[in-house]
Design a protein that fits this description.
Chain A: One of its GO terms (biological process) is amino acid transport. The complex is a heterodimer. By secondary structure, chain A is mostly helical. Chain A contains eleven helices and no strands. In chain A, α1 packs across α10. By secondary structure, chain B is of the alpha/beta class. Chain B folds into two domains: 180 residues, 3-Layer(aba) Sandwich (Rossmann fold); 68 residues, no CATH class. Chain B contains ten helices and ten strands. A six-stranded mixed sheet of chain B has the order 6-7-8-3-9-10, sandwiched between helices. In chain B, strands 2-1-4-5 form a four-stranded antiparallel sheet, covered by helices on one side. Classes of the chains: A mainly alpha, B alpha/beta. The interface between A and B is large, with 35 and 47 residues.
């Protein structure tokens, strides 16, 4: 069992790098796309709303594997057209196809998560901003988005973990991520324990991710904890600010 | 009323109408607040007093009527879906920034400390220098007795403390008129006084204020004018002595007797 690890361990680690790369890039692209789309999805204008609803129901309603095949094999059907458009280099490469599919898929999920977050922003706090004369951009920047991401944060972490593991199907279109290498090693050695090692790699990655995510979440929700150590202001500091204030006036 | 007093009024509203889902909440309400006026709006629940106050800084958009702030006429035009031109929107934002609003439910920004709550408006909307704003914010917090808690988050404060911070936040914008929407209605009885004390001080220093309130004794003490709203109309209006001692309208008599 450990002999296998010595011989093939580096390959599995190569796979881990590929898995991390695929997940990180596609989830980041999705993270950038999902926010503006979620805001448009909430607009009352049906010209914005309906295409986004269709997009979301397609990507949430069909298997990721089917989407991947549609992009990778489907694009082959349109090779002449894609060549003419100068896009064939992109669709020819399984790596790019996987990235595109995963990004589109994750965008759909993240979009819905953020929509829920936007809906749950305490309305009174937004109104307080409106009453101060804040323009829309400031409202989003200072009030709406901090709340939205705090509310959506656990669900977003969940989605990223699902994407990390769902990404294993990239191995079906010849990509050598953790799963791709594992399948290859198995076909050469017929040693079933390689799947155990693969599972362990996924487990380590997700565990580290969960820990990091929890730290970030604590930071985002720090205002919700009971404050024990309040930085007390000394009377000296208090009077000095008062004097400064009266100097200004 | 003469045109001069209208153009000089800190806040002037004429014949405001507002409906929600077919129900007319405001049926033509007018009000003139001169500088240094303290106007209390009283009335039973559902009489439209909060809606009227919220129409003044356009948190609710009136269906019809006129509003002037310091003589400047507000452009209330909007398209059928509630959209407004950029120019109109900018005027509204500018006007809102000089009307300080205090809400019944405080509405402090929960993800910001007390100090950040007070500083955000002047820094981001008025784009003032951060250091100057901080000095002013600390002085304001000191005034409402909250300087010691300036690094705490709102979730760790009592209702009365939150409302005092909310008042400091509104004052930090250096508003021409303060609007209070039932500032003590969400407070425990023993916390009401600390907030009223702050409001009373503001009244005494001559701030122009309009407040919706259920605190009759307080309204009688500090107001220069009291307005009684009933079913979307002003039923009686005048000095506090006049309204509280000699109410003429039957509704107001019944309303006042139910209060004590």
């Amino acid at each position: 069992m450990f002999e296998l690890l010595i011989n093939y361990g580096p390959k599995l680690l190569d796979g881990a790098v590929m898995t991390l790369q695929l997940t990180f890039i596609s989830v980041s692209i999705a993270g950038l796309l999902s926010l503006p789309l979620a805001i448009l999805r909430r607009s009352k204008n049906i010209l914005w709303q309906w295409p986004i609803r269709l997009y979301v129901s397609f990507f949430r309603g069909t298997p990721l594997l089917a989407q991947l095949f549609l992009v990778y094999y489907g694009s082959g059907q349109f090779r002449p057209e894609l060549t003419e458009l100068g896009l064939w280099w992109f669709f020819r490469d399984p790596y790019y196809c996987a990235l595109l599919t995963f990004a589109l898929n994750s965008t759909a999920y993240q979009l819905e998560i953020l929509r829920g977050g936007l809906q749950a922003v305490p309305y009174g706090e937004v109104e307080a901003g409106v009453a101060l004369g804040m323009p829309r951009r400031l409202l989003y920047q200072k009030i709406i988005l901090p709340h939205t991401y705090r509310i959506a944060f656990p669900a977003l972490g969940n989605e990223i973990i699902l994407m990390l593991k769902g990404g294993a199907i990239a191995s079906v279109i010849t990509l050598l991520d953790v799963m791709g290498h594992t399948r290859r090693v198995f076909s050469q050695t017929f040693d079933i324990s390689v799947y155990l090692w693969a599972a362990l790699i996924y487990l380590v990655i997700t565990t580290v991710f969960v820990l990091v995510w929890r730290l970030l979440e604590r930071r985002l929700t720090r205002h919700m904890f009971y404050q024990r150590d309040i930085k007390r202001i000394t009377p000296v500091e208090a009077t000095s600010t008062k004097m400064e204030a009266s100097n200004v006036n | 009323m003469s045109t001069k007093s209208i153009s000089e009024a800190a806040l002037y509203a004429e014949d405001l109408h507002k409906s929600f889902g077919g129900i007319e909440v405001l049926k033509g309400v007018s009000l003139t607040a001169q500088k240094h006026d303290v106007i209390s709006i009283i009335g039973s629940s559902g009489s439209g007093k909060s809606t009227f106050l919220r129409c003044m800084n356009l948190l609710e958009f009136p269906d019809a009527g006129k509003i002037r702030v310091h003589g400047e006429k507000l452009d209330l035009s909007q398209n059928s879906r509630g959209g407004r031109s950029k120019h109109v929107q900018q005027q509204i934002e500018r006007i809102r920034s000089c009307l300080g609003m205090v809400f019944q439910s405080f509405n402090l920004w929960s993800h910001m400390s007390v100090l950040e709550n007070v500083m955000l408006g002047p820094c981001s909307v008025l784009k003032r220098n951060r250091d100057e704003v901080e000095v002013q914010a600390r002085a304001l917090l000191d005034r409402v007795g909250m300087l010691e808690k300036c690094h705490m988050y709102p979730d760790n404060l009592s209702g009365g403390q939150k409302q005092r911070v909310a008042i400091a936040r509104a004052l930090a914008m250096d508003p021409d008129v303060m609007l209070f929407d039932e500032p003590t209605s969400a407070l425990d009885p023993e916390l009401v006084n600390e907030v009223l004390l702050v409001i009373r001080e503001l009244a005494e220093e001559g701030r122009t204020m309009i407040m919706v309130t259920h605190e009759m004794r307080f309204a009688r003490d500090v107001s220069s004018q009291v307005v009684y709203l009933h079913q979307g109309r002003i039923e009686e209006q005048g000095s506090p002595e006049q309204l509280f001692n000699n109410p003429r309208s039957e509704h107001l008599q019944r309303f006042l007797s139910s209060q004590y």
